[in-house]
Amino acid sequence: MAVPVVNIVIETDTDFSRTFNLKKSDNTPLNLTNYTFDAHMRKHLYSSENRGVAFGATFGADPTLGALTITLDDTVSGFGSLTSGRYHYDVIIMNSNNNKKTKVITGQAKVNGTTGVTITKGYGDYH
């Protein structure tokens, strides 16, 4: 079965989150109870960088429903950590019962620059 291609957009200096609803070939949710994940992004598919940028990930409140959310917080997407441009990313899950790894999502991540706006919490002032 072909791996779904899902392109994403990440704004630097912001929190990023994307939820995928993983399904089996019969279109029922994939039970993620016994799975771990690995989600990484790098500048080029075959680049020499060691695994690139790692996403955080969480499963939904009920792992039997197949929801997987990948995240990057603003410290990872921030200035100097992640530059504007196109990247390749993959989401791989591993069954902890048999150690079988499966790529479940792949695609391009477009990273857009941000001007460096500073928000003062509590006052609503934008600098």
CATH architecture: Sandwich
First-last Cα distance: 49 Å
What is the radius of gyration?
A: 16 Å
Question: Number of DSSP helices?
Answer: 1
CATH class: Mainly Beta
Mean pLDDT: 84
Element string (H = helix, E = strand):
EEEEEEHEEEE
Main-sheet strand order equals 1-8-7-3-4
Any low-confidence stretches, pLDDT <50, length ≥5? Answer: none
Class computed from helices, strands and strand pairing: mainly beta
By DSSP, the count of extended strands is 10
Number of domains: 1
User: Percentage of helical residues?
Assistant: under 10%
Explain briefly what this protein structure is.
With 127 residues, this protein is mainly beta. The chain has a single domain (8-126), classed as Immunoglobulin-like, CATH 2.60.40.10.
Textual characterization of the structure:
It is a single chain. This protein is mainly β. The chain has one domain (8-126): Immunoglobulins (Immunoglobulin-like). The chain contains 1 helix and 10 strands. A 5-stranded mixed beta sheet has the order 1-8-7-3-4, with no helix packed on it. A 3-stranded antiparallel beta sheet has the order 2-6-5. A two-stranded antiparallel sheet has the order 9-10. The longest helix is centred in the middle third of the chain and has 4 residues, at 74-77.
